[in-house]
Amino acid sequence: MVEFAGYEMPLQYQGIIAEHTACRTGAALFDVSHMGQVDIADAKAFEALVPGDITGLKPGRQRYTLLLNEAGGIIDDLMVANLGTRLQAVLNAGRKHVDVAHMRAHGLAVETHFERALLAVQGPKAVDVVPEAATLKFMEAAHLTIAGIPCVVTRSGYTGEDGFEIGCAGEQGEVLAEALLARGAVPAGLGARDSLRLEAGLCLYGNDIDETTNPVAAQLNFALSKKRLAAADFIGAAPVNAALADGPAVKLVGIKLAGRAPARAHAEIRVGAEPVGEVTSGCFAPSLNAPIALAYVRADLAAPGTVLDLIVRDKPLAGMVTALPFIPHHYVR
After folding, report:
1. In the prediction, which pLDDT does 88 show?
2. What does the DSSP assignment read for 114-173?
3. What is the largest CA-CA distance in the chain?
4. Which label site among 63, 124, 212, 255 has the fewest CB atoms less than 10 Å from its CB?
5. Can you give the pLDDT at residue 317?
6. 118 shares its domain with 260
7. Do the domain assignments include residue 234?
8. pLDDT band at residue 333, thresholds of 50, 70 and 90?
9. Are residues 92 and 173 part of one domain?
């Protein structure tokens, strides 16, 4: 068990590699109840705070979007689903109180449900564990009953695999988890969650993105609606549009390292003796049997195939910029 965002969280149950492999080949269960679930009634008012098309989000659909500040920095990245009568947003654990304060400061009515449980079943056999949600496609959301428990279910996750995120009343979370484990899911902790999301090329807030990060530098252009960019009617629109027009000074890239030693966050990146970037996340990737990293490097060095030195314990390790994701996503579209 380790401290994470003010919560005591499981780092591993039987071992990170075993849990990682269970997710890539079967079905893994993650308890992500530390994340914040909120309800929002006014889609138009919420849309003014993010660069995504929220008013165009159809009932039963979910979208990844970003809360931005005036400088175009990322306050948080979040999932928002249209549940018909309301929007439901899922916020990062360490940012949920900041997010709610930001939204309320801009006149948005937000109803918090931080007491709710949230479980994620991830992997190619996730649908065998949650057959009630088999008809959902990637990024769809629905009210469903799972093992007799009323839930809000989305077909999404943070591993690059097929899977579901399942919200329910807090007092029913343990019962739901036991039912999902009985159906064959393997419990998995933060260690596997991190290696899985890194292989999938997915950012972690506080590591790879923060309030100083422009979404264009973070290669999150897919979260920027062309219609909203043209209207420039959201907080942070001007600096985001400027970064698109001029190009960012740095870009987030994937790097695959030679050898076996991983480079961790804050490792310096050099070309010769010149510093050109910094690692934001790194680990040994079980699926690739090689160390990988996410890093910001000078924009002219961001092309796949570029060779860089990552400084680990004062020694250079050879790395090569690699297209993201490191492994293919397996979402059901």
Report:
1. 98
2. TTSEEEEEESTTHHHH-GGGTTPPTTBEEEEEETTEEEEEES--SSSSSEEEEEE-GGGH
3. 61
4. 212
5. 96
6. no
7. no
8. confident
9. yes
